[in-house]
Design brief:
single chain; MFS; transport; MFS family permease; transmembrane
């Protein structure tokens, strides 16, 4: 039983770090768009494209749910988040950030749409623990990610962080 709790703690930490990275990237993409002399409409597009695309992507992934395992989707979400972060680090124009939001929306759709199912499959005899790991991990990850992203933006001298 102790091994189960250590495994659960490890998964929770991984999920928290994933959510941290995702949420700090959200902050930096809008700040980066404004710092690249983009217009206010560019910043609005960067923020809203992800929000508009994640629900349709969730529906598509839900339809493919019987063909693709939750584990495969969560692993692919890690690679998608890594690719998104790499694009953010080398982007030189607002249009690149806008196009990268497709990756961000895909990552968010996988984590939000399949995250709870993934943890429930890992702990089939402990539905309360799997739910607690998912929700608490995502809340802590969002909190730390937003705070960390804002602190990094402040330290880097980015003025407009939304």
């Amino acid at each position: 039983m102790e091994k189960l709790y250590l495994y659960a703690l490890g998964l929770a930490l991984v999920f928290i770090m994933s959510a941290c990275g995702n949420n700090s990237d959200e902050k930096s993409s809008s700040a980066q768009s404004s710092e690249q002399h983009g217009k206010h409409t560019d910043v609005g597009l960067v923020v809203s494209i992800c929000a508009g695309l994640k629900s349709p992507i969730m529906f598509v992934l839900g339809a493919l749910g019987k063909r693709i395992s939750n584990h495969s989707l969560m692993i692919s979400a890690c690679f998608i988040a890594f690719m998104y972060s790499m694009i953010l680090s080398i982007a030189t124009a607002s249009w690149q950030l806008i196009a990268a939001q497709i990756l961000q929306a895909t990552f968010v759709a996988i984590v939000m749409g399949n995250g709870l199912s993934y943890f429930t499959e890992l702990f089939p005899n402990s539905p309360g623990m799997s739910t607690a790991i998912y929700y608490n991990g995502s809340i802590i990850g969002r909190l730390v990610g937003h705070l960390g992203g804002g602190m990094v933006a402040q330290f880097a001298g980015l003025r407009d962080v939304y």
